[in-house]
Fold each of these.
Amino acid sequence: MGRKLLLVAVVGVAAVFAVAGCSKQEDGDGVVEVQFWHAMGGPLGDTLDGLVAEFNETHPDINIESVSMGRYQALSQKIMAAVAAGEPPVLAQAYEAWTGELIENGSAEPLDPYIEGPNGLSPGELADFVPGLLENNTWDGTIYSFPFNKSVRAIYWNKNLFEAAGLDRAPTDWDEYGSMARTLTRDLDGDGETDQWGTAGQISAWMFENLLIQNGGEILTPDGARAAFDSAEGIEALEFMVRLLTDYGKVTSGYEYQNDFQAGKVGMIEGSTVSLSYMEGKYTFDMAVAPLPHGKERGCFVAGTNVVIFSEAPKAKKDAAWTFIKWFTSPEVTARWAIGTGYAPVRMSALESESMQARFEEIEGLREVLAQLEFASYEPRSAAWYAGRKYLEEGGVESALRKQKDPSTALAEAAVAVNAELGG
Amino acid sequence: MSWLSTLRRKKFMDPLTAALYLVPAGAVVVIFRMLPIASAFVLSFFDVKMGRIRGFVGLAQYAKLLQDPTFWSSLGTTAYYVAGVVPLSLFLALLAAVLLNQKIRGLGFYRTVYFLPVVTSLVAVSMVWKWIFHPRLGLLNYFFELVGGGSLQWLDEPRGIFEMIAGGLGWSWWPDGFAGPSLALIAVIIVAVWRGIGYNIVIFLAGLQNIPGQYYEAARIDGASPAQVFWKVTWPLLSPTTFYVLLSTTIVSFQVFTQIYLMTGPPVGGPMGTTKVIVYYLFERGFDAGGNMGYASAVALVLFVIILSLTLIQRRVVERRVYY
Amino acid sequence: MSARDRELNAAFRTRRSLSRAGVYALLWIGVVVMVVPFVWMITTSLKSPIEILEFPPTWIPTGHFVEAAPGVWSEVNIVSRNAAAGTISVRPLGGGPETTVDGAAVRDRFRFRLENYAEAWRQAPFARYYFNTILVTIFVVAGVLVTSALAAYAFARMKFWGRDNIFVLFLSMMMVPQPVYIVPSYIILVKLGWIDTYQALIVPWLAHIFSIFLLRQHFKTIPADLYDAAIIDGCSRFAFLWRIMLPLSKAVLVAVVIFAVVGTWNSFLWPLVMTNTTAVRPLQVGLARFSQEQGTNHELMMAAATFSIAPLIVAYFFAQKQIIQSLATSGMKT
């Protein structure tokens, strides 16, 4: 028996070698293989894979291999480890802060030669990009990354619950935001416990940052050297957020607040435009979206990542990766990407396209939500801010939302930690 | 024929032949165990940014480690975790083993069921429990509500449990630093106990079955009560087993990673960093943006020293034989 | 026996059986605690995304149906219940206009959504993950059998300089936990060009020190006379290992296989660090990525968890005695 076991094992190994001898695809037949690492899961991943397959079909000499790393944190760990190993992929999604580190390491390929090259983009096409996007991908006058999946925040509101509460539209300013949330917070069965909430959200620096600029505040000082979110405007914004989410709403883990909203227990939520694709078909009420209410001013941050090409890759692969980027950000494709995922199209002409117009008909308020891109701003891009941001989220926003500290203390303490990160 | 035998035996002494038999395993052990372990030691003295050695820094990274609040808090979190998992797992496993040792019917059935989680992958286990701990839709809060308790935030609750208990008793003030492990960490501890208890039960059961019946016979003749039998006979005779289970559970618990990676956050280690254990900190320092593999190696060495000391204590004590 | 004696004895027996009932009650509490998470996993995996959100939860997945045409029942989601009017507002499962029907018109029926499994299987390349895990497991099992048998034979039967010291050195490697050497291992695999390859998952695990130890201990119990006799008969050393030692070590070899299978199937940190692409990504890492991507689709996550643990659980039910014994002797807490 013992012997037989061993024999079977050896034969098995031999057999498997014979069957699976070819474990990795090699470039053959003139097809350029391009590995593309991203963090697009669920419906986003489905849409992306569909578009990648279409690209591969229409570009027989290129094969984009789409590799999902699950989520951004895991993607960042994988990219940094791979760069350390000297074996990065050809193409990857990257936040501006990662790109900054990659540039410093000499791993991010400057894209200007591609844009200006024979397979490039005309000045007219460049002008068609949503204003601000390309600037945000430029470092010292050089474009190192290209906008890929960009989103803005929106209000999602349950029209049935609004109607039942005597409301007929989404809030347009902070006062309405608060008062409508209060009206929507109800004890339906009269047992003394709230069972319908005005709003809900997760612990998120993103929501705070949006409120901050709506209130006239800034994340960092203009030179990016110190925290500025602990200003009077910041404290007021955080106080408003705490009131919204704890008095007239609730704080949930991760994206569970979307589930609560889908279950019809929450009147309205703030979410990324991408939440749309996650909620599609999972709610049983009339839903509409609306732009963020304005505070002292209108304000919203653009979130999401860009794509970078890695310098380490051979020229043919880099060229192929650029061909993919150019195709992906073309008006027609970016519109389909936007419709499939809820991300904002990166081209102005895409917003006018027939398919986007049809989508606007379908989702009430989406046009106004995407119009926020016109005045949108961008988070600081430094690696130090990326590292420091978690202190704002965990130390500042989280401890205030959990009522462990009052907003001014929470922000002051977060500012100290962020300043330490920015200084060192 | 003894000369022939001697000849053959001589051939057995041929070190070359022995080397041939040892090479396959030996090569793997040398290249993939000894070399990396030695490298970890060496790397901890170098600044290694994005895979590039940027210079020899001597003990600087250890000095930085001593000043690193995240390192200390991750060590503290790990200590809380170990201090939670080990006694709970030992007590419950011993209880179950003693019950199973009562000549009950269906011993095999119970043992099979209790051992089931041990063969289940930790990834799947973590996913299932994360769902059980769900604050609103989870099974655990459902049970709590059935028996009239309130619902808890479990994996989202950063408050320390001592502080929560004090709050429940109506004390609004509780000293900083004595808040205890967060409820989120307690949730992770519960999963670890659930997952590993079957293993400890089986070891305890084997230990119990090895206790010679004559001791129990003698105790019965002396008219000892069940409690006396347990404390005077079972407990001392079981002590080598108990000690083994204690140490092995401690050593494994120090290395917790998978549950943290899958159940907590995002970001992993949350809420408010209260579940960031040392192995996750090492992983983050080694592989994430802004990381430094040299610094991660210094963290690894500290972990190694802790586990090595535990192992050596185990050796020492087990060799002395633990019959208290 | 006097009447009094009998009475005492009976009372004693009642007390004994009472305490026995207590023993069984405690054991059954344990059974429930161990089994309920599995039941909950399977139940969830068979629910619709909307049923997931129902609280209190249902134990058996249930769907709501209305009679769309005589004899034709179509599934609906309940939007709201009006207790006063006794009506229920429903909406067809695939979307569509909301209608209000009489409460009695809505029937609840068990509805096991096996399609969740197909959906989860489709959403990520689980077939590939399975293939990768099985492939790696086969290689590791085969390799560990070979390397352990050879090394154990050398340690048990051959005499060479420094044998015992080398053996102790091997054993001491068991004391070093994986997280300690994962960073330098990554660098070594980079230098070998093995990141994101099968080699990275197989070769470093081709030697299992505890298996060598176990086999050596067993080989030592095989009487020396036996091989003296065999050698005199002209048996070579390898033939002795192959023909005599191994057939006598069946139980230990099975244990070695079990360590290797369970350890490889469930390993996580190593493949998480060493693989990047789906081409070589094993099941556990694939499952983890899947759960990170899914966000709130609990039914799909539970379906994926179920089919990922199924093979080992099935194997466990067939060979639970060997598996429990092997894992218990190994000190291996996977």
Amino acid sequence: MTRVGGDRLPSSIRERGDPYLATLIQQIINGLSLGSVYALIAVGYSLVYSVLLFSNFAHGGFLVIGGYICYAALRTFNIGIWMAGALSLVGAGAAAILTERLAYRPIRERTNVTLYLLIASMGMSIVIENIFVIVAGGRFRALPPVIPTTPVNFFGLATTSAFDLLSLVSAVVFLGALQLFLSKTRWGLAIRAAAYDLRTAGLMGVNVNRLISIVFFVAGALAAVGGIFLSVRYTLYPQLGAITIKAFVAAVIGGLGSLPGAVVGSLILGLAEMLTAGFISSQMRDLVVFSLLVVTLLVKPTGLFGKSVSEKV
Amino acid sequence: MSDAVMNEKKALLEVHDLHVSYGAIKALSGVSLKVFEGEIVSVIGSNGAGKSTLMNAIMGMVRREKGEILLGDVKLDSRSFRVVQQGISLSPEGRKVFAPLTVLENLKMGAFPRGNDSKVEEDYEWVFSLFPRLKERISQYAGTLSGGEQQMLAIGRALMSRPKVLLLDEPSLGLAPIIIKDIFKELRRINNEGVTILLVEQNARQALLLSNRGYVIQTGRLVTEGPSEELLANADIKAAYLGGGHAKGKTTQALA
């Protein structure tokens, strides 16, 4: 990773008041911001998991697709971030639907064994990554400065960047919209029912294939939002999707298949990473992340909000 | 209704020469049956005879290897969601209510194919009039209901699509006799309000007492059919499925 936002303290803070408090507040904001981006990714991943009961390893690919569409739209068409963002969301959503149609549906229709889906998703993740290596090249790309990163003074307590606040706000908006969709609409209800029992949802007259397409579209679009913010926070490259491993960890800590769990797990992970970076060392971040995972699996294998279900992969 | 009239009349649901296999295992081999409008028809048989497979095959939940199913003059689609849209719904074996959804949300799911039909609201009230206990529990999670209440919810949910034919797979499964009696009483009422019912049951006596006609299924084949009272009086059926009625006392009381 080339650039890690918010790890270093602006010198202005050190001169004022309690430096520890300032660092703490700043790293909490940064942690929530990073966690909220993880949440966007983890929620989509968890949504797919809850309906189809397999870990979609191609999920990171959706994020990369979103990032590149946004990059291409900004560079070639010279349109604003709103249009480029919208294109990116729709494009990644469509790519997610396509992935499901091509790689998962043929398997779904032949067998109930979800292990095959897991393996197919690993294949698709490699396919998507390599498409970008071939088409866009393997180099790192910086998104044009479309998202402001100017410092913002946070109630005189700490200084943070506009980018961190923006990513936090966007994540809240998108997750809120997802929550509204799931709780207030007919298809949202059907998705919740399918997450409990897909087969019986089909018995209710729900077109299960369409439902799964909707789920993949939502997952792809949310991943694209995460992809755009990650491309700005770090840079854009074909392997950026590997960061999804953090979102997987977050989803496991929160409880696989549980959407509130995915959000809470992501925030915990983001906070843990940023507090480690702020008070211990930036290099210890991943160590802390995976230690959290191990501790969770030892103490509560089903995660914070998980239900114990057997036979899922 | 005389047999002659019966034969002339067009069946509402007609299953013709239905075959289903699970891999190498044949689950249904040539099942044909008819259900006429307004009837209650029961299919009785022991565990593993193919009762649930029959229901799932009608619903398109398992692949129909051979044979066809007609609803009126229309061939039933092979996809479940189309079958429901065509006018058949199933209250599945083991109830299968959506545990993390509320009672009302479960009923909403039942009405899914009707979209924004304004009459859905009236039908909630209809279901609540049939099963008042569901109304008391309207915002409770389905997973917290008792077995009997879950069965009522599963039936109510299936009714919410306003089916022409309601399929019931073992509505008595795992319930106390007094609850079974209640539920079967409501099934009679549902039928009186114009819903045609096809039910499969292990509890043969209850099923035959409720239905107009019955079929007996054995290892994937229908072996006997007739008006329910005749089946109830039939010595072989008594011996095999009703228990306690055999003249020589060869069957055990436990079967009842």
